[in-house]
Amino acid sequence: MRVLSGIQPTGQLHIGNYLGAIKQWIELQQENECIFFITDLHAITLPRDPKTFQKEILNTAVEYLATGLDPEKSIIFVQSQVKEHTELCWLLNTITPAAELFRMTQYKDKSQQFKKNINAGLLDYPVLQAADILLYQTDIVPVGKDQLQHLELSRIIARKFNNRFGETFKIPKAYVSKTGAKIMSLENPKKKMSKSIPSSCLFLFDEPKEIKKKIMSATTDSQKIIKYDPKKKPGISNLLTIYSLFSNKSIKDLEKKFKGKNYAEFKKSLAQLLILKLEPFRRKKKELLSREVYVQEILNKGEKRARSIAQSTITDVRQKMGLA
Ligand code: ADP
Ligand code: TRP
Q1: Is 110 a catalytic residue?
Q2: Among 94, 147, 304, 306, which lies 20 to 30 A Cα-Cα from 237?
Q3: What is the C-alpha to C-alpha distance for residues 16 and 86, in angstroms, rounded to an integer?
């Protein structure tokens, strides 16, 4: 199976990115042909500082490797370095109904949030994502729940193209983990944890002191019972989910373990667990930060391998559309 996914280089990776996406990537890379890239072209749909952008991209590459992506097993590269992504995006634009794009939740949210910068790229974002996926004849796309609508649109675009121009693209499937597909914000557990709101995040590379501070001050309700009930008790339920996923214990077992204990005791235990479990990530990142040339070489190699697959699809698409 060919597996593909990407993350925007818009800040440090957090435990939501990990539990919702990267953890699955690492499992999948053992048995499959995997392609993981850094979606810098998607990131510029919101303003970025050109002076620091290259550094942020490299930092995301370092973080990919620190979490366990293996360049021997997976193709790892930067999206903008393989120009076929933008070329296919344009070609797919010509068959994508604009109405579908205006319906996208992410577009509605982002254009609400950034009223002064509703650029065409923000609207076209899912078509570029479809191009990313279809370019590599992808079977499986491991992502968090928030990306399902974009994945569905990729499938619509692929089918439309195949119907009009003949069998060209594989129809990709989303791959979403049963738990952890939506980790909520520590500060407002009704919203998703997101890089765009740093105060919502527990970053994968936070230092122990920071982890303790963030977990101890995570928003919870005023009751004192440690019970999983996402509707009535979203804060404690989110923390239970995190605890369960990092400890491999079921939520039921955790409810039993913490019966009669107060929130502070539960949070202290969770902070300790996270400090322990995230330690290897912190160590690996520090080591990789001092090996910039090595990381850059991995990206260069990945780019070459990605391009050769991408070119073969683009050649076919051009012919099918009468452009060659
Ligand atoms: P962010 O919203 O934090 O900037 P991205 O949009 O770059 O994250 O998403 C990268 C990947 O991580 C996607 O597959 C996305 O579905 C997943 N993801 C992002 N936030 C969460 C979350 N809070 N819970 C689970 N998965 C998430
Ligand atoms: N839109 C995705 C996100 O914000 C990132 C992304 C871009 C992606 N292209 C992709 C994810 C292709 C999976 C496949 O999370």
Answers
A1: yes
A2: 147
A3: 28
Q: Is the pLDDT of residue 294 over 90?
A: yes
Instruction: Output the domain CATH number for residue 97.
Output: 3.40.50.620
Q: Is the beta carbon of 122 within 6 A of some atom in ligand 1?
A: no
- Could you report the per-residue pLDDT of 45-75, keeping only the tens digit for each? 999 999 999 999 999 999 999 999 999 999 9
Residue 223 has pLDDT above 90, yes or no: no
Model confidence at 95: pLDDT above 90: yes
Domain assignment of residue 274, given as a range:
205-286
Instruction: Clarify whether residues 135 and 162 are in a common domain.
Output: yes
- Write the residue with the smallest CA distance to atom 8 of ligand 2: 6
For the Cβ of 193 lying below 6 angstroms from any atom of ligand 1, the answer is: yes
286 among known catalytic residues? no
Q: One of 23, 192, 212, 285 is an active-site residue; which one?
A: 192
State residue 196's pLDDT score: 86
**Does residue 170 share a domain with residue 118?**
yes
Q: Which of 3, 7, 39, 106 to mutate to test the pocket of ligand 1 (most atoms within 8 A of CB)?
A: 7
Q: Measure the CA–CA gap between 142 and 152, rounded to whole angstroms.
A: 13
Give the whole-number percent of the chain exceeding pLDDT 70: 100
